[in-house]
Fold this protein.
Amino acid sequence: MPRKTTSLCRRILLENYTTRGEKMITNLSDRVFVIGTGTSANSVLVCGKKFCVLFDSTLFPEKARKIKEFAAEILGKEIAVVFNTHYHPDHTFGNEVFDRIISHSLTRKSLEEMDEEYIRKIGVEVSLKFPDETFSERENYRFGDIVVEAVHLGGHTPDSSIFVLKNEKIVICGDLLTTGIHAEIVTDSDLFGWIEALSEIEKIRADYFVPGHGKVGTIEDVRNMKDYISKVLRFREGSVKHSELLEDPNFINREHPELLTWGLENIIR
């Protein structure tokens, strides 16, 4: 289970950050905070001695500003840099609030290809901010006492990347992992690549695996997601029936079944 902070004052402040009765912030330690409400995209804020690093900037610039305020007012630190796990709007549209953005090169390319019609359909007023820096396959970064390994894996989307915080024993998985809800399988998802990506994540020794959506997971959640995507792949190939998926505990115990219906439609078009 996520650890409680040692500061009573900070814990009380954290408990007040809620949305519609759901706790908005889960603290994994005194320096790592997962910001999300279960179904909304998770952001991860890592606070070092001098400043903070944020992973994914949410869909709404206003929410991104709230995260920035939380870092400044509650933690007393500025956010020095934001990493994007992939290009989807619920992970990138808050970029405009921050000065420095880092992502995979394909993430920047996909953001650059978003036109006004695409943004209009999303329904969010935003001034797209593209990443200032990009990486290719694997890159190591250090921001004071915060050490980040960026790894491009693909799968969920061609640009999907994970970020490994070895000192904290945390892997930030983006939408390669979801817990408690169905996966978001999109038209550019590569199911074979997704399974390979999860196999790579399985090899990492960590205490926490932060999903793109859902509560913070463990290695078992990574294995369950791998099983989930494998069965979806078998469904597409015809070796698993739709009725079998609906009877599988790995499927029926997840919320938002409309995501499954939508995802299956995306892979059989």
Q: What stands out?
A: The CA atoms of residues 210 and 216 lie 5 Å apart. Residues 1-21 have pLDDT under 50 and may be disordered. Residues 8-268 form a domain with the Metallo-beta-lactamase; Chain A fold (CATH 3.60.15.10). The chain has one domain: 8-268.
